[in-house]
Design goal:
The chain is an alpha/beta fold. It has 8 helices and 14 strands. It has one domain: Ribonuclease Z/Hydroxyacylglutathione hydrolase-like (Metallo-beta-lactamase, Chain A). Helix content is 24%, strand content 30%. Strand 9 and strand 10 form a beta hairpin.
């Protein structure tokens, strides 16, 4: 498995960080995990235009995680109808599988053009296979609607993505023994409603420690997070290897 981190930011924009999206490559197949703002441009930067995608996995429907899914679908329609106007006029449109929580079918239906080959599946606490990968999706705690976390396993290698989840037993179980855990860095001291939506820095370390993960990758940076010594707080509970992600970083698993 190879993971390219396309976007490490949030819905609060900065020049350095795009919104959350991740490209997972395995056996020549391309799986997009979340479709945050700028993901199509980021895909072009790494030589993987959206027309090359085989699967899109949506964790939840906060704007910074899915708003370019309609653009991906529209690009497929445009390629069918007017390929000569695009950057890749000779590319054929192939089947795109889209998986996500309840509501994903309505979103795709609203944007899927006539003749666009898309297969949609609603998932929750589910297990399925993608191109030889064993995938588990689990609903985690992130506000009233939650968010899907994903566990990918091939052979003895495990990658886990917990999206924006706060610390909860489900996220620790999902990440148990992972080679790589991709986790939101959270906020220094979440207050008010944010306590239900985002972890504290120290909570992130607690999840990684309790799950005994080999490597922790910090992502989903609010601009305010970078004003603090978040690594110090994460390391209070986790003594393993920590990677501070940046846009277009590649990680082999």
């Amino acid at each position: 498995m190879k993971l390219t981190i396309l976007g490490t930011g949030t819905g609060r924009f900065t020049l350095e960080r795009s919104s959350p999206s991740y490209l997972l490559e395995h056996k020549g197949k391309n799986i997009l995990i979340d479709a945050g703002n700028s993901c199509m441009k980021q895909l072009l930067k790494v030589g993987k235009p959206s027309l090359d995608l085989d699967v899109v996995l949506c964790s939840h429907f906060h704007k910074d995680h899915y708003l370019e899914l309609p653009l991906i679908l529209y690009e497929m329609l445009q390629q069918i109808n007017n390929p000569q106007f695009g950057s890749f006029p000779n590319k054929k449109v192939k089947l795109l599988k889209v998986y996500g929580p309840g509501g994903i079918k309505e979103i795709v239906k609203a944007w899927q053009g006539p003749g666009t080959p898309v297969e949609v599946k609603e998932i929750k606490n589910s297990s399925f296979k993608l191109f030889g990968l064993n995938v588990n999706s689990v609903m985690l705690n992130h506000g009233k609607d939650g968010t899907l976390g994903f566990r990918f396993k091939v052979g003895n290698k495990v990658l886990v993505y917990t999206s924006d989840s706060i610390k909860c037993p489900e996220s620790i179980k999902l990440a148990l023994g992972a080679d790589v855990l991709v986790h939101s860095v959270g906020l220094k001291n979440p207050i008010g409603d944010n306590k239900d939506y985002h972890p504290s820095f120290s909570d992130v370390g607690m999840v990684a420690s309790k799950a005994k993960v080999k490597k922790l990758v910090l992502t989903h940076f609010y601009p305010v997070a970078e004003k603090f010594d978040y690594l110090k707080d994460v390391r209070k509970n986790y003594k393993g290897k920590i990677i501070v992600a940046h846009d277009l970083m590649k990680i082999e698993i």
